[in-house]
Recover the amino acids of this structure.
């Protein structure tokens, strides 16, 4: 049951990220309404999501990658510090069009990374980067749940 709920959450996040259920403004509303226990939001400004969604829907090679993590309470603060470092490094990687991190509303021990890349090759290069290997390894080591999904936008027009 819990795995099914997590899979559904990943699917909904992915659909919202590629603009099939939500718009950029609703995603920004979601980010701004997530309760946090720290002063700064998990994410900062990202690249132009609206234009990248439109070009992805037009048949480009762009992809979205969504990862979900859950941490025991004693590792949540460490995870947030690690996510910030990973996001900062990842946004500078060639081919990155967006890198946002969300914290669960119903379960504040869950975190969702929504990545937007110019191509599968750009995502693969990111996953071979020193920062991804280091920070990703730390996150996976302490996570009690880790799952991912990768997809492409399509024109529902």
């Amino acid at each position: 049951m819990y795995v099914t709920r997590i899979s559904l959450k990943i699917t909904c996040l992915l659909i919202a990220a590629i603009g099939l259920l939500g718009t950029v403004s609703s995603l920004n509303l979601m980010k701004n309404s997530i309760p946090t226990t720290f002063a700064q939001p998990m994410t900062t400004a990202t690249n132009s999501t609206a234009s990248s969604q439109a070009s992805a829907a037009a048949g480009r090679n762009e992809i979205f990658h969504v990862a979900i993590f859950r941490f025991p309470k004693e590792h949540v603060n460490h995870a947030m510090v690690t996510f910030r470092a990973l996001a900062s490094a990842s946004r500078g990687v060639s081919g990155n069009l967006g890198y946002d991190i969300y914290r669960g509303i119903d379960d504040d021990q869950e975190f969702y990374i929504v990545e937007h890349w110019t191509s599968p090759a750009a995502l693969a290069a990111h996953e071979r980067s020193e920062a991804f290997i280091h920070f990703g390894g730390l996150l996976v080591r302490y996570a009690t749940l880790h799952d991912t999904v990768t997809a492409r936008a399509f024109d529902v027009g």
Q: What stands out?
A: The chain has one domain: 2-151. Residues 93 and 126 are 7 Å apart (CA to CA). The helical segments are 2-17, 24-33, 49-57, 76-91, 120-127, 130-142. The longest strand covers residues 63-70.
